[in-house]
Amino acid sequence: xxxxxxxxxxxxxxxxxxxxxxxxxxxxxxxxxxxxxxxxxxxxxxxxxxxxxxxxxxxxxxxxxxxxxxxxxxxxxxxxxxxxxxxxxxxxxxxxxxxxxxxxxxxxxxxxxxxxxxxxxxxxxxxxxxxxxxxxxxxxxxxxxxxxxxxxxxxxxxxxxxxxxxxxxxxxxxxxxxxxxxxxxxxxxxxxxxxxxxxxxxxx
Length: 204
What we know:
Blueprint: E1 10-15, E2 20-25, E3 28-30, E4 33-36, E5 42-46, E6 49-52, H1 57-78, H2 84-97, E7 108-112, E8 118-123, E9 129-132, E10 135-139, H3 142-152, H4 159-175, E11 184-189, E12 194-199
Antiparallel strand pairs: 1-2, 1-10, 2-11, 3-4, 5-6, 6-7, 7-8, 8-9, 11-12
Helix pairs in contact: 3-4
């Protein structure tokens, strides 16, 4: 088993009409043994930007704190909120610094820029960024998520339709993956608010 699959977990982000969504499952495992059913994988970077971190749980916790520190320092020095694209490049350079002994996470960034343009991207464990205009996936259920997102995603989805689409994609993909599951958390980021919802799913 790959070290990237040791704790399991999946994250997906999608673009809608003036909004973005990011969702993850809740499972933390030790290979096929479930350890926790409410493990946080998505972390706020600013009011309109979220970071998803699927991968090795110890590195998820380490990096979430490191990114929080870097983002707070940026806010103090620049006296403004950090942009999603800047978050992506900050994460990329942090991962690339450790390329010879990498952090075992494949981050996803989703957010709205200051003019409310949707932004999503994913990257590998040494920080190579994959920008997208529709959706990005990461984690152990990625293969299943690609298929579901290709089938369900449409351009210019309204926030409620985007929620339904990303929820169905994630729930159906994790049902076919033994290392993801136990429900999901979905964040819909719109220009005026962030809607967070928890979903129940098969608990086995």
